[in-house]
Structures are given as structure tokens and as C-alpha cells.
Amino acid sequence: MSAFHHNSPTDRDIRRVLQKLLVMLSLGVICVSVFYFLTGCCESDLTEYTISNRPAREFLLPGWYHERNGTFYKDVVTVHDEDGYQGAGERSTKTPDLVTNNSGTDWTATRRLPQALIIGVKKGGTRALLEFLRLHPDIRALGSEPHFFDRHYARGLNWYRSMMPKALDGQVVIEKTPRYFVTMETPGRVHSMSRDVKLIVVVRDPVTRAISDYTQIISKTPNIPAFETLAFKNSTNGEIDDLWSPLWIGLYAQHLERWLAWFPLAQIHLVSGEGLISDPAGELGKVQDFLGLQRIVTDKHFYFNKTKGFPCLKKPEGSSKPHCLGKTKGRIHAPIDPDVIQRLREFYRPHNRRFYQMAGQDFGWQ
């Protein structure tokens, strides 16, 4: 009776049904797998960049957005500490190759040659200008000074391009090397790269600039001669040594003339170093106009630091400190004899007038 029960047709039928269901289920899993595999092959490989690849120190800037196709997205900035600037660095060069917005549109970020250069002048405020410009979501700026056109030109444009941060279509790539403005070969070399490149020069009262330059020099080599000794060929008759670098750089008309032989004045924008301190938003507004960008960096981003004596960037969300230029900026200038300063002002006066005429702008230096 027990054997008959185990071999009944009913049990065999149940086993056959279960076997068929198992086979059908297996076939279904295989079909679904094949379907997803085939559809997956048709899509681009976008998955290699994930949120875990982002640098750890990213934060959203309150009220600062990136516009794409009429839609604004929060702009993410990565914070670095480089070149003496506390907390505000360039957007990371680890930026993903592919960026996807909420609408599903992809933009490919690539390295390309700069469309704009900050070419000078040393101790004029170029670092401050670069850091302020970095606030703009459509500017991608190289933090270090590559010195390509004055020191490393033999390395070629491919090397230069490899130094640039990756940028999306519509973003402006920019680098700064203040030595470019005074280097003889640089204008022609820049023109060979691009005749349409936009050039930015930050100028400052040449006497104040020279003293600032000397102050930086003695901070690194304290045993050099006094400013007065280096500034004059002959202290008795007051003959100025205009070949001494801190004074030679301030001959702006001489240097601008060399650039105007290669580029029209419309492609050269002059920034007032004094204005960059007293009205940073105003100067930044004009620079953004010159670069063809929307005025996103405004007075709401700045406050004046009385201790340092120049503007700082207001503290963004996620950061514990405001952004101020580091200790190497805003040094107390070396004390210079007032008679020496007066002689230098007289020396520069005709050079400044010529510079104003060439630039079509009076900077009001004494």
C-alpha cells in the first residue's frame, strides 16, 4: 500500500509540472540577462565616474550656479591650499571627463589651450585677480604659473595643453604668468598659438609696485643692498638705474608697445591694481564683460579685511574660514626714504603719461 502511494500518477504529474516550471524559470532568467546585456552594449561607458571619485573637500557655493541650456545647477568647488591662498583653489583637475545634468545631457570636458591669459604685472595683483575669477563657474583656471611662453616654450603646445585644467564647452580656460608682459619673445609666441586670445594686464603705481617687488626680494634674500643703492646708478646726481628689474617692469608703455605690435588694444584689458583693492567687484565686472561672461562674481562675494588691507572672499557654506590671500600677500613694505620715492615719481611721470595715451585710460598715479 505504501509503495503504490509513492508511485501514484498524481505524484509523477506534480514532479513533471515542477520540472517544467523550473526549466521555464531558468529560460526566463537567461532571456532577461541576454536582453540587459544587449541593451547595455548600446550605451556609452558613463559609469566609471562615480561620486566616490570626487575629491573629499568639495562644497556647494550658496547662490552660485552654473547655467547650461537655460537651466541653473549648483556649482561645486574643490578647495586647495596653494600659492599662499587659504581655502580657495582651482576647481580640481580631477573633474570627471563626462558630466551629466538633470536633463540627461552630456558634456565632454577636455584639456585645451587657454582662451585668455593674465600676462602681468608682477606684484600688481595678478594672484588676487585669478582667485576672484575662479568664483565664476564658466572659468577654468590653472593655479600654478606654467611659464610656457617665457621659459618652457621648447616643450611645445601639446605639453602646454596638458597643463591646463579640463573644461566644458563654453567655459573659458585661463592661466596667469606675470613675467609674460615683460619678456621680449612672448607676444609673438602667444600670437602663434592664437591671434584671438584675450590678454589681461593688472597694472599698479610703478613706484609702489617696485617697493613691493623689493620687499618680496629681501624676504627671500635679506642680505642684498638697500633699495636706494640698487635704484640709482649714481646717488649723487640721482641717475635712475632703469635696468634694475623692479624699476624696469614699471615701464609699462615700453612693454605694452611690444604687445600692440602683435595684438589690437581691443584684445588687451587693463585692470587697475588699486581698483582691485578698493572696488574688487567693479574691476571683476569689467573683466567678466571683457571675457564675454555673465556678471556672476559681484560685491556680494567680497568683504574688506582691515588687518590685511585688501578684500577677501566671504565664507562659503561648508568652509570654516573666509578666503584671504596668504601671509606672503599684503606684506608691510620696506621703509624707503621719501626723497627717493619723490625722485622715482618724477622719473616715471613721462612714462606714465605715455602709457595713459597708449591705453586710453588714466590710472591717476602721482
UniProtKB/TrEMBL annotation:
Membrane topology value: Single-pass type II membrane protein
Name this protein carries in UniProt: Sulfotransferase
UniProt keyword annotations, A-Z: Disulfide bond, Glycoprotein, Golgi apparatus, Membrane, Signal-anchor, Transferase, Transmembrane, Transmembrane helix
Annotated source species: Esox lucius
Stored InterPro entries: NST/OST, P-loop_NTPase, Sulfotransferase_dom
Disulfide bonds: C312-C324
Keyword Translocase applies: no
Residues reported to bind 3'-phosphoadenylyl sulfate: K123, G124, G125, T126, R127, R204, S212, K329, G330, R331, I332, H333
Family assignment from sequence similarity: Belongs to the sulfotransferase 1 family.
